[in-house]
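Q: what sequence does this backbone want?
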């Protein structure tokens, strides 16, 4: 189909993958929005924009958004207390307002707008609040809990009732993986740094979480492919919710041998402990690694930050989690058949981070 895609959250895991994917496709022009410049080169325009600044959104829309045909909204505000923030009213209100500021400015400025892709996630099914009756399906009634997902979704539906002809797709991945230094929910950066620090200290790689349970991964590259599929298949994607995952299942204890092998380490016995408590104390060790391997200058706080908290949650530290699986049958039946091996994708991301001198070889 082609067109001009506006990607909000362009420096994040999902937004960055969307920028890369669309800018590599013929017939697409990319306008990338984020407060900081993406950490990669791409074909297209980058506009620094604070989505909480309604006046700046309005001015930017008048100047730059006239040709926009598609919106990928992957912007996200997270608090320093990542897990607690998921139920925080202020965080919900901020994420709601960010979308309202951008879309309220975009819609009147972009008369040819055709489609909006909006990110949600497994928290739509309440996985952060209660056990999930896996596999979660899009046709289930809305889970009754406070969530900015519902605020954003209801706003889009209200705007659509004005009859301007555009449609939406809402995407629900589980455990998104990809490239985004400093993201507060980046499992790969946390695992890569944890492995590197353990190796530098002469320790084996030790699983730090709780009991085994089944999960999934959703690679950001796969999500970006789905955005493009939705743009090219309007009849299949219009006004639909889609779960999206790589296509296999993940048990993190079973991934640790591959992580240890990739970093040339021994695998130690499981030892539950909090990465969020232990790893921020390892800054001196990290700086030794940076110097020894000639890595890009960085510190753990800016590279991993709150992702240590997220890693504790994903690995099940201190809890007895239940299986978290999203059915992806609806998306496959609609015509999107992309899939990835989660272990292979994880190792490929480690290799990419090593090639960019962010993680040591």
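A:
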């Amino acid at each position: 189909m082609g067109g001009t895609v506006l990607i909000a959250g362009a420096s994040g895991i999902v937004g960055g993958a969307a920028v890369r994917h669309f800018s590599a496709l013929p017939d697409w022009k990319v306008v990338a929005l984020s407060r900081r410049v993406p950490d990669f080169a791409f074909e297209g325009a980058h506009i620094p924009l604070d989505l909480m600044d309604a006046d700046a959104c309005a001015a930017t829309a008048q100047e730059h958004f006239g040709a926009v045909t598609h919106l990928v909204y992957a912007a996200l505000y997270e608090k320093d207390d990542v897990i607690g923030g998921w139920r925080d009213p202020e965080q919900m209100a901020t994420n709601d307002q960010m979308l309202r500021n951008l879309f309220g400015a975009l819609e009147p400025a972009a008369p040819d707008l055709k489609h909006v892709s909006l990110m949600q996630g497994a928290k739509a099914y309440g996985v952060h609040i209660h056990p999930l009756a896996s596999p979660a399906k899009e046709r289930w009634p809305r889970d009754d809990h406070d969530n900015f997902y519902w605020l954003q979704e209801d706003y889009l539906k209200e705007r659509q009732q004005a009859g301007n002809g555009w449609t939406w797709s809402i995407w629900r991945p589980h455990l998104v993986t990809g490239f985004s230094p400093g993201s507060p929910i980046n499992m790969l950066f946390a695992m890569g740094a944890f492995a590197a620090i353990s190796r530098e200290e002469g320790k084996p790689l030790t699983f730090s979480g709780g009991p085994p349970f089944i999960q999934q991964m959703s690679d950001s590259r796969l999500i970006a492919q789905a955005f493009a599929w939705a743009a090219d298949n309007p009849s299949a994607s219009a006004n639909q919710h889609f779960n999206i995952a790589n296509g296999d299942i993940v048990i993190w204890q079973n991934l640790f041998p591959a992580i240890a092998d990739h970093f040339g380490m021994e695998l130690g016995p499981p030892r539950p402990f909090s990465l969020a408590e232990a790893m921020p104390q390892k800054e001196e060790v990290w700086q030794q690694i940076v110097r020894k391997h000639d890595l890009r200058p960085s510190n753990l706080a800016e590279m991993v930050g709150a992702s240590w908290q997220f890693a504790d949650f994903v690995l099940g530290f201190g809890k007895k989690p239940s299986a978290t699986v999203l059915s992806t049958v609806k998306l496959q039946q609609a015509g999107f058949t992309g899939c990835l091996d989660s272990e292979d994708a994880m190792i490929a991301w480690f290799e990419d981070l090593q090639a960019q001198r962010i993680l040591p070889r």
